[in-house]
């Protein structure tokens, strides 16, 4: 009897703790979501590598990167992150199925930019650097 009730409770706990958005990063981090139909897609891998090689610029702007592919979300090391519900995440950030591109989510939780591959990292950094919150961050860094 105990075994029969433990499994449903365990599954419920897993589901209840899963995230439907990136709100745990709100006000601390900007999020870049790389969407692709395959992690082996040339456009995706080229774009991913470009941004990964700009880690200092990502860190300076408090950017965390994720990949979204085939109903799963992956961290910066392309390891599956199991704590997210993908359908609500796609809906909230307006990321259609089959989309091949980048979605920038600001510290306020809103979508700031959505572009198909290929996009120069410089463009993303320029968009972020024009944001009022980023302007404040840059002024504070100068004052420190």
From TrEMBL:
Q: Which Pfam families match?
A: DUF4174
Q: Which domain of life is it from?
A: Bacteria
Provide the leader sequence positions: 1-18
**Which keywords accompany this UniProt record?**
Signal
Residue ranges of every copy of the DUF4174 domain listed in the record: 23-137
> Could you identify this protein by its name?
DUF4174 domain-containing protein
What InterPro entries has UniProt attached to this entry?
A: DUF4174
């Amino acid at each position: 009897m105990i075994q029969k009730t433990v499994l449903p409770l365990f599954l419920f706990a897993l589901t209840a703790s899963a995230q439907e958005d990136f709100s745990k990063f709100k006000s601390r981090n900007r999020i870049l979501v790389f969407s692709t139909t395959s992690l082996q897609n040339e456009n995706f891998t080229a774009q991913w590598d470009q941004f990964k090689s700009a880690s200092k610029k990502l860190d300076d702007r408090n950017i965390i990167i994720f990949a979204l592919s085939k109903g799963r979300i992956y961290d910066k090391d392309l390891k599956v992150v199991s704590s997210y519900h993908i359908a609500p995440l796609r809906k909230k950030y307006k990321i259609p199925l089959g989309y091949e591109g980048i979605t920038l989510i600001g510290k306020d939780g809103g979508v700031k930019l959505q572009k198909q591959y290929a996009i120069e990292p410089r463009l993303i950094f320029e968009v972020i650097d024009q944001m009022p919150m980023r302007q404040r961050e840059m002024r504070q860094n100068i004052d420190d």
